[in-house]
């Protein structure tokens, strides 16, 4: 790793903005440039962004004004490239033996130098370049027929995004022995250049009328009606050609390959239309009533099921405004009770999903030396498809007391999801197709959120010292309340299932001798190396259901063998803490965030956790050194020699975390990790020079600051692995895929771009 | 206020005109074809049939390793989990997920929807494509039948409401095979064999592929019905309501005769007995004089290569497939008689033997090409051989292929050699073998390998006590010499090919052989004399010494080979190399259990007998 990564890298940001305002015209222009240095020692890496925004409005007369907001963004990220299906980190984990050298004594490349991608990085002709351009403009027209009472705003937005992603893999050689003709690692015919280009064109239009009649002191009424429409088109082109003739010139025209990858050329188009209205009425400044509704249509659903109606209503009561609460007015600034019930529609499914389609593909099988084009059976479509409805019931309490120094806001909610868009119910296998996604089942989420803050200031050395502290804590638990035709399999949805639950085996440490393993409950479930039995140093699984054997039963609710719910993979008790203080131009702000409880069982391919337990040639983990069971194999009754040191890692068995029946492949409570954490996300210390001084040199405000990001992280996870960042631990959100299956699979954990600790020094100047 | 209302009404009109909602909200993809408009042209049908080839043409490892690796004639490091003592159960079993049945669904999807093409193409063309779809439907059901016995016959695209099928019980094997045969016979009649010049021996399904496949499955089921007295799914005697064993042998013979009479195929015999057999397995351009159906590899720009050599030359990639002494002993000598003494060194063992031995198993003089391109003698590696023998039938012997998927040999899925063996066996089982048929089948195969052809009925015939004991001993039904020789020939000709050895053991009801070991000791390998044990021995010129191994004073290691494996010897200090790894056989294992998950979904499927 040392050969590839730098310990430190640097980045720069420059911002500039200009504002102007006249009687009828307002305008502002701003720009930003950001550049980050490479994190690799070898290879070209460029990361920069540039953006500019212009914003202005003109009041044509007292009734009509027009405005425009236009922004342009440009991003560029170039990085060295090695292999398409082998991200660099996975490659290191698999192939980066700590003793490899990239260069032979005679200067030629070694096999490992090529196999890890070192030379591809270093020579720089292999790249993965991405750039994107974003343009967005919004025109608005506001007509105010009756000032402060009726206004109508219409706007139109056009957004265009252009994205291009090029990958080049040049031919390469290595030398297996001195003087031996370089062997081909990637032949010229296999070298390639691929280009992925996609464009998004997005249009949106809104018309909103707001009516706020004056109805006297005790009545406040606000009526809004509107219409909106969005139209988005996403086009993707992909092409690839093989046969790079000149490494530094990977132009499609300077290649000789006749073999093209199957090109992509498709358009995804989605349209949405909505009508909405809202009436808000407040009586005596303290009784608040609101009713609203939306009527939405989406092209993702079949014509007969396109439209959904989503009403909502809320009430509020500002208790402190009641005459009988005046006694408390000296310390009670705000006390409000809220309640609302509201429905929203969700159309989270891909476009065209309900259509039966046939697509063309190019074969990987040959006929007479050539690939051919083939089609296959159409996708199975759902019986129907419509909006998923999420209805939330929320009650809340807000108060501010002691001259608004202490503030509290609390909410408790129940969210019912109906007609969930999720995997369909299990159908017997001979149906021959996965049950398509559709509107199945219901889910209930119960959650709460609390925010408490305190802010105050007092005088220190004749200058005001201001400080504030704010903490937030929130959590929610989701359970499936209904799922039609539930098969009872614990890994799919069933009524009562809690999202994120982890089923696994219970353990009681590991065996110290073979004799102990032999006398334990029979375990023909886990394949340990080549055999279905355990030895000294292997996990001691518990026969939870007492049937005399360790197994997973049928993995159903009725018969789940020795599996139990051993944890939950979703984050719980999430929190954030902000601290701010300033005195005499000196400012300090601190932001901490974390998760109070989360369980994580590493996926089988989480090689940076499992190391040699995944593949015997996998990464050598520092946390395993001196903390692994050592076994004396000299007699038939093997025994653990270092039991007194209580090592964490069990006996080294190749593929035990990687093979389908491996004892570490299936979830168990021994290797279940606690992934809670507390992170010092951001600390900023700043100093603003008194404006009296800076004004002399025509500077309105001059602020110097230093910011540290991700400086400290605490997590129980680090006890057993230092290679994972608890904030980005999983590869993606798969909670709604209908539950993840146990056993083999799952690549991606721990291969993300490393979270950088950064320290930024900056200056803000305002003229 | 009036003005306000006017404005609102105007705005509403504007909205209504802007969006004619039904058009705006109806959108179609640009890169896919709407399924209801597909299957109208011949091209549509052709491309859909291509999809079967892409997804279901047997893969390289399934042709060249598959279940053959776990049979009586091959020693492996740990064998298949299925045969491990008493560990297999319905929870471990897979093969009954929706993905396993999407193949059948795909065939029915075509058969149900292709009727749209009727008005656009000729009847003959229509029947040709219907035949291809039915071939694959039969093919898909047959592979399920081999694994699970009784399996539902699915002849339409199941709908979710179709509870009689989805939640019903399984169909009886005899009915199932009858329906499979109906499909295959329809295909044999209607699939075109005309463009054979173009498609012969390649990937595409033509009449000849269908016939050769029919030959294989009819022989399989005919023998199954003959040697098993009961349906293994239920342990109830066959009811013979549909085809009998004899009728199935006849159907096999019928397919064989059509292939033989077509004149399109012959054994690949260029008069070079030392390499003709090998050409079938090590060529990129496969010999289509014999091969009927194949999976192609190509090292050119299309770059379709495979890892077969890697499997055979790696300590970790595969199971270190090692030919046993039993297999080696089945090869005749060049004069057509069996060997008389197998206690000889590998260096002499290959002398004067059926040329297929040296073309299948590493012997003296065998060479490989190293990374620098030099041709060097091949050294037997005892860390990837458990018997001292190594296969090379499928290996492109270049060092670069040992750890990378760079092998470019195409592999035969069906070939005329197998058809001849099927023909000989069907005839012999019906008692209709003649010297003429013998000469055209087994005799031709032996002659191609340089072996003198001796008809078992002739006076020159020498009985092989080893072979007789192997098949007729242990209480197995006693076979005549013709059947014994046919079994010898199948083992030798088809070793490690298309899973046929496992099929043979199962249909002959010889599953027990998988767990039977030489003198109950273990897998048997090369023979070492006491001197060779004490002073070392050589293979192909490379020296090896024998050292003591762990566990017991009569356990040995073989040094000079980097091997850490342990063996014993049959006579303690000399004898055959023995590798012991105990496997288990039980007659219920002729079928796999119905997976527990499938029974959860539909308990009416019922479990197979014994599981």
Structural write-up:
The complex is a heterodimer of chains A (767) and B (611). Chain A is mainly beta. In chain A, 4% of the residues lie in helices and 49% in strands. Chain A has a 21-stranded antiparallel β-sheet. Chain A has a two-stranded antiparallel ribbon with strand order 7-8. Chain B is α+β, with helices and mostly antiparallel strands and 611 residues long. In chain B, a hairpin with a 6-residue loop joins strand 13 (546-548) and strand 14 (555-558). In chain B, helix 3 (42-56) packs parallel to helix 6 and helix 8 (173-190) runs antiparallel to helix 10 (207-227). Chain B is globular, with a radius of gyration of 28 Å. Strand 15 of chain A pairs antiparallel with strand 1 of chain B, so a sheet runs across the interface.
Features:
heterodimer, A: mainly beta, 21-stranded antiparallel β-sheet, 36 strands, globular, B: 611 residues, alpha+beta, five-stranded antiparallel β-sheet, 40% helix, 9% strand, disordered N terminus
Helix percent band of chain A: under 10%
Note poorly predicted spans of chain B. Answer: 1-10
Proportion in helices of chain B: 40-55%
| C-alpha termini separation of chain B | 84 Å
Q: Average pLDDT value of chain A?
A: 85
Low-confidence stretches of chain A: 731-748
Q: How do the strands line up in the largest sheet of chain B?
A: 10-16-15-14-13
User: What structural class results from the helix and strand content of chain B?
Assistant: alpha+beta
Shape of chain B: globular
Query: What is the overall pLDDT average of chain B?
Result: 91
Radius of gyration of chain B: 28 Å
Number of strands of chain A: 36
- Class by helix and strand content of chain A? mainly beta
The structural domain count of chain A equals 3
Could you tell me the radius of gyration of chain A in angstroms? 31 Å
Per DSSP, what share of the residues of chain B sits in E-state strands of 2 or more residues?
Answer: 5-15%
Largest interface, counted with CB-CB under 8 A?
A-B, 91 and 89 residues
Oligomer: heterodimer
Biggest sheet of chain B: strands, sense, closure? 5 strands, antiparallel
Total strands of chain B: the figure is 16
Number of helices of chain A: 6
């Amino acid at each position: 790793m040392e050969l590839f990564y730098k310990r430190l890298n640097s980045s720069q940001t420059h911002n500039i903005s200009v504002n102007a305002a006249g009687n009828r015209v307002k305008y502002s222009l701003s720009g930003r440039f950001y550049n980050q240095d490479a994190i690799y020692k070898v290879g070209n890496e460029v990361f920069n962004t540039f953006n500019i925004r212009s914003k202005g409005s003109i009041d044509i007369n007292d009734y009509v004004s027009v405005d425009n907001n236009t922004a342009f963004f440009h991003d560029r990220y170039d990085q060295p490239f090695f292999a398409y299906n082998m991200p660099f980190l996975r490659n290191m984990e698999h192939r980066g033996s700590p003793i490899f050298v990239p260069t032979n004594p005679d200067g030629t490349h070694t096999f490992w130098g090529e196999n890890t991608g070192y030379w591809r990085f270093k020579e720089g002709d292999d790249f993965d370049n991405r750039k994107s351009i974003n343009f967005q403009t919004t025109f608005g027209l506001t007509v105010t027929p009756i000032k402060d009472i009726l206004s109508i705003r219409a706007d139109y937005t056009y957004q265009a995004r252009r994205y291009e992603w090029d990958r080049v893999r040049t031919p390469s050689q290595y030398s297996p022995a001195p003087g031996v003709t370089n062997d081909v690692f990637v032949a010229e015919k296999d070298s390639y250049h691929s280009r992925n280009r996609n464009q998004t064109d997005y249009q949106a239009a809104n018309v909103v009328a707001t009516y706020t009649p004056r109805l006297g002191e005790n009545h406040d009424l606000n009526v809004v009606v509107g219409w909106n429409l969005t139209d988005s088109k996403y086009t993707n082109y992909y092409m690839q050609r093989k046969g790079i003739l000149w490494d530094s010139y990977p132009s499609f025209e300077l290649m000789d390959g006749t073999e093209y990858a199957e090109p992509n050329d498709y358009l995804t188009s989605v349209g949405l239309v909505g009508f909405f209205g809202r009436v808000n009425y407040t009586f005596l400044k303290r009784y608040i009533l609101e009713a609203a509704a939306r009527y939405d249509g989406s092209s993702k659903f079949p014509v007969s099921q396109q439209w959904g109606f989503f009403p909502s209503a809320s009430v509020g009561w500002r208790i402190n405004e009641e005459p009988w609460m005046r006694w408390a007015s000296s310390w009670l600034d705000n006390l409000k009770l809220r309640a609302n019930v509201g429905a929203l529609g969700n159309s989270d499914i891909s476009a065209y999903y309900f259509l039966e389609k046939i697509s063309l593909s190019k074969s990987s099988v040959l006929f007479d030396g050539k690939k051919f084009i083939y089609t296959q059976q159409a996708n199975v479509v759902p019986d129907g498809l419509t909006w998923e409805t999420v209805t939330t019931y929320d009650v809340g309490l807000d108060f501010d007391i002691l001259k608004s120094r202490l503030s509290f806001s609390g909410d408790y909610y129940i969210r019912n999801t109906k007609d969930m868009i999720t995997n369909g119910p299990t159908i017997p296998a001979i149906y021959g197709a996965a049950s398509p996604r559709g509107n199945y089942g219901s889910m209930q989420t119960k959650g709460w959120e609390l925010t408490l803050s305190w802010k105050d200031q007092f005088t220190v050395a004749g200058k005001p010292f201001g400080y504030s502290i704010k903490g937030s804590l929130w959590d929610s638990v989701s359970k499936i309340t209904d799922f039609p035709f539930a098969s009872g399999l614990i890994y799919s949805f069933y009524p009562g299932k809690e999202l994120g639950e982890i089923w696994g085996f219970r353990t009681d440490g590991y065996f110290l001798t073979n004799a102990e393993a032999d006398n334990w409950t029979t375990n023909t479930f886990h394949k340990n190396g080549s055999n279905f039995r355990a030895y000294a140093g292997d996990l001691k699984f518990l026969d939870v259901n007492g049937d005399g054997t360790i197994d997973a039963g049928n993995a159903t609710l009725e018969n789940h063998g020795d599996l139990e719910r051993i944890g939950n993979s979703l984050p719980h008790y999430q929190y954030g803490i902000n601290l701010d203080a300033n005195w005499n131009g000196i400012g300090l702000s601190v932001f901490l965030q974390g998760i109070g409880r989360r369980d994580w069982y590493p996926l089988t391919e989480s090689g940076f956790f499992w190391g040699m337990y995944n593949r015997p040639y996998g990464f050598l983990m520092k946390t395993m050194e001196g903390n692994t069971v050592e076994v004396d194999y000299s007699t038939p009754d093997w025994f653990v020699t270092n039991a007194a040191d209580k090592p964490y890692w069990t006996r080294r068995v190749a593929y035990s975390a990687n093979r389908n029946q491996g004892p570490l492949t299936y979830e168990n409570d021994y290797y279940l990790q606690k992934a809670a954490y507390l992170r010092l996300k951001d600390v900023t210390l700043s100093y603003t020079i008194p404006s009296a001084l800076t004004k002399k040199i025509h500077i309105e405000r001059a602020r110097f600051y230093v910011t540290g990001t991700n400086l400290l992280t605490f997590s129980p996870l680090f006890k057993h692995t230092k290679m994972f960042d608890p904030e980005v631990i999983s590869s993606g959100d798969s909670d709604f895929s209908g539950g993840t299956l146990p056993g083999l699979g799952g690549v991606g954990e721990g291969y993300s771009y490393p979270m950088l600790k950064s320290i930024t020094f900056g200056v803000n100047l305002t003229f | 206020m009036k003005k306000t209302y006017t404005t609102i009404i105007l705005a509403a009109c504007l909205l209504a005109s802007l969006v004619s909602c039904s058009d705006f909200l109806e959108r179609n993809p640009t890169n896919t074809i709407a399924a209801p408009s597909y299957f109208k042209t011949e091209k549509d049908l052709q491309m859909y049939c291509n999809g079967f080839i892409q997804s279901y043409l047997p893969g390289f490892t399934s042709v060249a390793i598959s279940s053959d690796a776990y049979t009586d004639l091959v020693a492996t490091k740990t064998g298949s989990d299925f045969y491990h003592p008493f560990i297999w159960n319905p929870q471990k079993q897979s093969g009954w997920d929706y993905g396993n049945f999407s193949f059948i669904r795909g065939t029915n999807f075509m058969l149900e929807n292709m009727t749209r093409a009727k008005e656009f193409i000729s009847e003959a063309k229509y029947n040709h494509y219907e035949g291809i779809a039915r071939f694959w439907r039969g093919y898909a059901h047959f592979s399920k039948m081999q694994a699970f016995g009784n399996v539902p016959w699915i002849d339409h695209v199941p709908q979710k409401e179709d509870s009689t099928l989805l939640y019903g019980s399984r169909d009886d094997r005899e009915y199932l095979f009858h329906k499979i045969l109906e499909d295959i016979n329809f295909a044999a009649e209607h699939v075109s064999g005309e463009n054979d010049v173009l498609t012969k021996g390649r990937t595409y399904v033509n009449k000849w592929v269908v016939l050769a496949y029919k030959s294989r499955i009819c022989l399989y089921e005919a023998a199954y019905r003959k040697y098993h007295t009961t349906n293994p799914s239920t342990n109830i005697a066959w009811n013979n309501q549909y085809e009998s064993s004899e009728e199935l042998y006849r159907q096999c013979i019928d397919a064989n005769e059509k292939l033989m009479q077509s004149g399109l195929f012959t054994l690949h015999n260029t008069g070079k007995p030392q390499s003709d057999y090998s050409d079938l397995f090590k060529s990129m351009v496969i010999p289509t004089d014999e091969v009927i159906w194949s999976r192609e590899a190509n090292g050119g720009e299309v770059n379709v290569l495979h890892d077969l050599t890697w499997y055979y030359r790696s300590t970790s990639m595969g199971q270190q497939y090692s030919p046993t002494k039993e297999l080696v002993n089945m090869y005749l000598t060049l004069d057509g008689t069996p060997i008389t003494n197998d206690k000889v060194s590998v260096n002499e063992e290959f002398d004067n033997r059926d040329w297929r031995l040296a073309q299948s198993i590493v012997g003296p003089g065998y060479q490989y090409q190293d990374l620098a391109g030099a041709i060097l003698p091949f050294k037997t590696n005892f860390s990837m051989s458990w018997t001292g023998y190594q296969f090379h039938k499928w290996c492109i012997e270049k060092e670069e292929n040992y750890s990378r998927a760079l092998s470019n040999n195409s592999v035969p899925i069906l070939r005329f050699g197998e058809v001849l063996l099927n023909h000989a066996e069907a005839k012999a089982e019906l008692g209709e073998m003649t010297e003429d048929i013998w000469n055209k089948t087994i005799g031709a195969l032996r002659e191609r390998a340089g072996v003198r052809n001796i008809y078992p009925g002739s006076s020159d015939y020498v009985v092989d006590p080893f072979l007789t004991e192997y098949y007729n001993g242990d209480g197995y039904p006693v076979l005549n010499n013709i059947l014994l020789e046919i079994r010898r020939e199948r083992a030798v000709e088809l070793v490690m090919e298309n899973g046929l050895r496992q099929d043979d053991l199962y249909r002959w009801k010889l599953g027990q052989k998988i767990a039977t070991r030489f003198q109950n000791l273990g897998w048997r390998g090369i023979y070492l004399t006491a001197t060779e044990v004490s002073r070392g021995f050589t293979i192909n010129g490379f020296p090896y010494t024998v050292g003591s191994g762990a566990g017991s004073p009569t356990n040995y290691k073989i040094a000079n080979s980097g091997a850490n494996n342990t063996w014993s010897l049959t006579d303690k200090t000399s004898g055959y190399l023995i590798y012991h790894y105990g496997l288990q056989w039980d007659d219920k294992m002729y079928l796999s259990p119905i997976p527990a998950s499938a029974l959860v979904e539909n308990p009416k499927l019922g479990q197979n007998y014994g599981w």
